[in-house]
Amino acid sequence: MQAAEAGRAAPPARVAGECDAAFRRVRDAFEANFAERGEIGGAVCAVVGGRTVVDLWGGFTDAGRTRAWQRDTLVNVYSVGKGITSLLALKLVEQGRLRLDEPAARRWPELAAAGKGDLTLRMLLAHRAGLPAVREPLPEGAWADWGLMAGALAAQAPFWPPGTDHGYHTNTFGFLVGELVRRETGLRFGAALREHLAGPVGADFHVGLPRAEHGRVATMCGHTTLAPTEAMIAMLVPAATSPERAQMLRHCYFNPPGLSGGGVVNTEAWRLAEIPSTNGHATARAVAAVYAAALDGRAGVGAGLLAEARSVQSQGMDRVIGRDSCFGLGFQLSTPGRVVGGPPPSFGHFGHGGSLGFADPDAGVAFGCVTNLPGPRRWHHPRTDALVEAVYASL
């Protein structure tokens, strides 16, 4: 009875924006996400053939449903930022400023420590570096100290010899790739992103969100935003796991405390920090804009390099997530068992619990969706799937 009364008391979610008549299915699916699938607030944008056909937002920016989602509402998009980070690095590769297959230690000498002298940018982008976690226990808030995070990763021994296998670098990916970007551009990562990628393509995408913009950020909701308990950690670290693997899994997600956003994702400190793998703040429009720019060349990555970036670099059993994964150069790739947006040759990246950005070169589709209610699954979620399916049904 209480649940029913709470449901009646909640104000209806309103959807705003524009949707081409041919893509009415997407609006219907978006509205159904609020009415039937528990969505609190979010946005979806689709660009087809260079034309924006869907640009919708709706619901609320807070769990109490008191503040309506606006056209320019930003929200944490978690690992969607990995795809954006990859495009920035690839643009520098296209310009000859970074090289995929030279030892990364030529630009970052400290990275050669502990047998990592042959580690390359290609390995970093393909999750083959053997550095998915910081071994040394770090204090709370260390995720906001770029130098500390990058320095710890550079100094430590890898969990496997670089290049020999792959495992999802859940939170370290951005520090590793981002440090090469920082050293080449001479800019903090967030500034490099604005100057070299987000700014030129007009994308409202931020890593290290200026304090003046915090007023338009949606509050993340749901149990996954809370500080993790030992019971939650135990689900990721089975009791029979070897000590080395147990350390890797625990530290991958929880070292330093808060690294995955649990307990801190709605704080000012989190929004100000630069954690490219995990704390990008964006609109759905911004995510779609970056992927549309990747398709038409405005992102500064040529067709040849983009084709290489969406070719398989790592595939098979993932040392971190414990199941098959498939990566190109920083992008998740579609496989028969796990589609990333569209079918091959689509490329992009999910964010924790349902946010998504991807591009489909064959269909000419660029897509972004964001939410402030992460679902229970790491990547796929019924709300996201419904939106993607509606786009393809409308083509």
Helices and strands in order, then pairings?
Elements: H1 2-9, E1 15-19, H2 24-36, E2 41-48, E3 51-59, E4 75-76, H3 80-94, H4 121-125, H5 146-155, H6 173-185, H7 189-201, E5 205-206, H8 230-236, H9 243-254, H10 268-272, E6 281-282, H11 284-296, H12 303-309, E7 314-317, E8 324-327, E9 332-333, E10 347-350, E11 356-360, E12 365-371, H13 382-394
Antiparallel strand pairs: 1-3, 2-3, 2-12, 4-6, 5-6, 7-8, 9-10, 10-11, 11-12
Helix pairs in contact: 2-13, 3-6, 3-7
How is this structure best summarized?
The protein is α+β, with helices and mostly antiparallel strands.
Describe the structure.
With 395 residues, the chain is of the alpha+beta class. The protein has a domain at 76-215 and 218-279 and 289-348: DD-peptidase/beta-lactamase superfamily (Beta-lactamase, 3-Layer(aba) Sandwich). It contains 13 helices and 12 strands. Strand 11 and strand 12 form a beta hairpin. Helix 2 packs antiparallel against helix 13 and helix 3 (80-94) packs parallel to helix 6 (173-185). The longest helix has 15 residues, at 80-94. It is globular, with a radius of gyration of 20 Å.
Helical segment tally?
Answer: 13
Structural class: alpha+beta
The ordered string of helix (H) and strand (E) elements is HEHEEEHHHHHEHHHEHHEEEEEEH
What is the CA-CA span between the terminal residues?
A: 43 Å
> Using DSSP, what is the number of strands?
12
List keywords for this structure.
395 residues; alpha+beta; Beta-lactamase; seven-stranded antiparallel beta sheet; three-stranded antiparallel beta sheet; globular; disordered N terminus
